[in-house]
């Protein structure tokens, strides 16, 4: 049984709870990150939707806000509460509020140290990095009303890690030989490792040509060797299946990163789109059922 979280998220009325909100933000931004105190509060605070995380004792441990500019910001979790899903829960609450308002997208300015966190929660990087309050940031954006365009390696890494992170118990990967660069990204390898070693039944279906096995990054090959009960590899044998040009990653949560031309990274990321994900899953499973267990597994010693 998965233990219940030791915190809860609530909507915070700024007029009555600003002391709690600013207490967390001051501890994280001003004390810890040395952001000038005059920048911690701004004119958007009274106009924004705020969420507050409290621990089991009712103490404030995290904050976030959604501004009228359709931007998420002031995301902060006190040091002692990090690593327990507080940030994910705060972000989820803010995205849900944006969706409730009918907004088509939300954006944010992510500190570089938090870029991977936002990426695995469905935000894709956009443009160059920039300085804000003396800290390097990256603009990131998430569409709420449709698919997001993926155009380069940074976007592909973020898209793939998001699909992996949001998976419940099953992942499907249809890859190409040139995917070694994408699959070798530390962010993506970490996401696969977290999923594969989580304490629940899980399955990763990996569909690739036998000759492509040798091109897999060594850390991924080692993970496959270590967890043969999680990873199943098959290779297409039907000529029609072998001629399929597309590639992608999907999960059992309605998410998929699909590339119509599998040799290229350009494609689209769809989140919480059951119809789109089901379409891609059905195509994948038809090929999977006609494919054979990858004989190169014997070479790996699995």
TrEMBL record:
<keyword id="KW-0808">Transferase</keyword>
<protein>
    <submittedName>
        <fullName>Acetyltransferase</fullName>
    </submittedName>
</protein>
<dbReference type="Pfam" id="PF13673">
    <property type="entry name" value="Acetyltransf_10"/>
</dbReference>
<dbReference type="GO" id="GO:0016747">
    <property type="term" value="F:acyltransferase activity, transferring groups other than amino-acyl groups"/>
</dbReference>
<dbReference type="Pfam" id="PF25559">
    <property type="entry name" value="DUF7931"/>
</dbReference>
<dbReference type="InterPro" id="IPR000182">
    <property type="entry name" value="GNAT_dom"/>
</dbReference>
<feature type="domain" description="N-acetyltransferase">
    <location>
        <begin position="9"/>
        <end position="145"/>
    </location>
</feature>
<dbReference type="InterPro" id="IPR016181">
    <property type="entry name" value="Acyl_CoA_acyltransferase"/>
</dbReference>
<dbReference type="InterPro" id="IPR057691">
    <property type="entry name" value="DUF7931"/>
</dbReference>
<dbReference type="InterPro" id="IPR050832">
    <property type="entry name" value="Bact_Acetyltransf"/>
</dbReference>
<keyword id="KW-0012">Acyltransferase</keyword>
